[in-house]
Amino acid sequence: MAILTPFGGRSIQNPAPNTGFAQRSFPEIGHMRVGVTGGAGYIGSHTVLALLEAGHEVVIVDDFSTGDRQNLQPSVTLVEGDFKKPEVIQNFLSHGLDAVFHFAALKAAGESMEQPEAYSAANVRGTLFLIENLSRAKVRNVVFSSSAAVYGEPQYLPVDESHPLVPINYYGFTKLCIEQNLAWFSRLGRIRYASLRYFNAAGYNRAGKIKGLERNTANLLPLVMEAAAGMRPELLVFGDDYQTRDGTGIRDYVHVEDLADAHVRALEFISDNNKDITVNLGSETGMSVMEMIKTTERISGRPVPSRIVARRDGDPPELIASSALAHQLLGWKARYSDADTIISSMWNLYRDKK
Ligand code: WQD
After folding, report:
1. C-alpha angle 268/274/279, rounded to 5°?
2. Which residues belong to the active site?
3. Domain range holding 149?
4. What predicted TM-score, i.e. pTM, was given to this entire model?
């Protein structure tokens, strides 16, 4: 049902959550009304599914600049627009939120070096505007999408949360800058927060509940899928002369359903314990570019045309998380982040595209 809200944003509402999942019980958390910025985007939409499954109500604010309407679940309330606009944030906050998950941001590290203005506006200024408004509206619980990019060049592996914070791209700096502001707003008694430092987010909902593919991404796995599906002529492999087992870059790919689960647990943790947390979310396993290509070829039965080119600036040879702290505090461990599960969940969506 489409309804008009008092503040002019358009909302859709349906009474009953219908995620298609068996309900998992989270007896410790009371029911909450959770606002989600960027809830139609890639990680946001998967997290919305997990929130609904855990019995929470969800209010999404999204301007569909990169999000996809196909990712909206029928039971969510939608505030359509850019949360950085006063009338949109006012509408969003009028829903009486207990917590906000903040996903709406730009995320391409390379692009952030070419267009720092856009990253400053969206990731820094936009998020500070959100935090100021949450503070004034007394929305206590904030769950923030941070990134392994806050660490910069790994000085040791696996990277834990005590690793020095020396971002080597502006994108990573924007995330660090917000983490520092969250810490201050918490210290001043305004909010409590979870900052979740994702490693390489990958995969799609295994039951096919999320249908909107990410567009124009610079990340490896969507490009591997596009090459396998014939949507692009070839994949460029950025360097095969690293000191790694096959010469190509090694990363810690973490399934987006594992990330979504961690978000719900993080909300439970900060609200139950009245404490902030900053944790890595990774699979603690490294996979090379070549291994991901081979896994895709095996699972899809299609070739992945590829060509070795020069290394990409700023790419470390290897990046692997320690997620021991998330395990300890949240009881979280990646369950679906093996290469086969990640790749097959993606191929299920890409196989029919061209
Ligand atoms: C993975 C591997 C590339 C593309 C980035 C951001 C990081 C985080 C996640 C948000 C590397 C290789 C890639 C291609 C390739 N973002 N590659 N050909 O660079 O590890 O991390 O996304 O938080 O901040 O920097 O991810 O997917 O771009 O690359 O060979 O066309 O694939 O060199 O080894 P990255 P990625």
Report:
1. 60
2. 171
3. 33-202+255-281
4. 0.93
